[in-house]
Amino acid sequence: MGNALRFLYGQCCSEPPTTTTTYGSAGDQQLGHHGVSSTSVGVSALAQHLYHFEITSQVPEGLSEHVSSSKKAQSNWYKKLSKAWRESKPPPKTPEEASRLVIRTLQRHQRPDIEGILSFYGLPLPHSLVELTAGDAPPLADGLKFELHTLPVDARAVADGDTVTVYVSTSDARESSRVPQEVHMAAVERNEARAHKNYTKADALQKQIKDAGYGVLHINNEEILARKYRIRLRGIDAPESAMPYGKEAKDELVKIIDGKCLKILIFDEDQYGRFVGDIYCNGIFVQELMLKKGLAWHYTAYDKRPELEKWEKSARAKRIGLWASSNPEMPWEWRKNRREHR
């Protein structure tokens, strides 16, 4: 039992996979003795305490300062949380995911105690969590072209709040028959060159692979040949990086998908060569979350789904994110003005 949670804890606290192409560590600040980033320190501490509880049956010191219930009640909470954490697949990685697990597991207990536990770990309180629609995204319009299942995404692959670069392994059924012969050969020759420490040749072959739209990714001590896709999130338009809330939109998208494998439904290709699609991450419809957090507009010029309009209106009414401003500038108008003044 303890080993199972220790494995989950290791997954939770591990750095996102690194690759030999565009991937790398997220680079956010490391905090204290936890040795984890500011975005995951509370999640890591909770996982560590649950693992410790399974070994010692002891709840963490200091928790009683945040809750009113007895030590016996606290032990009951941690027993339930340990079981829920072990059974979650995958285990929580973000503060929002950990907070939802705590709230869901302890829903029959007193609200002040639940909020006390969340405060103890610095996790989001119930009122600050965005409620997501159960199940799939809005009904799909005609025109679905194909579906992608990506390798883990890294922070550096996120360009802004509505664009991300992903990689799909060439062992994927759809991809395997599409790899050009010269890319296959270049990948084999690159491995041989590296084995013989001929790094000049290996680098030249790596460039050849990259120029063909592929990459060699190093994940879990394994090199994987993968196809590169630039993805534009369908139906939303996030603030540009230089606009107010541009950084917040990008950071939110990073937080949602960093280190995760995605399911992407592709509908179109835009004028910049990006594939336009709906993105799912651990069952979450990413566009829904971005809209409900007030970090993107519903892009009505290209997407008429009423659900997206409803989610934007909900954020507007709550004055969340960019809607805290009474008259935020539309990204498409901002881009148009920039082009006209060049």
From TrEMBL:
One GO biological process term: tRNA aminoacylation for protein translation
UniProt keyword list: Endonuclease, Hydrolase, Nuclease
GO molecular function, one term: hydrolase activity
A cellular-component GO term for this protein: cytoplasm
Domain TNase-like: 149-325
Organism domain of life: Eukaryota
Name under which the protein is recorded: TNase-like domain-containing protein
Organism: Lactuca saligna
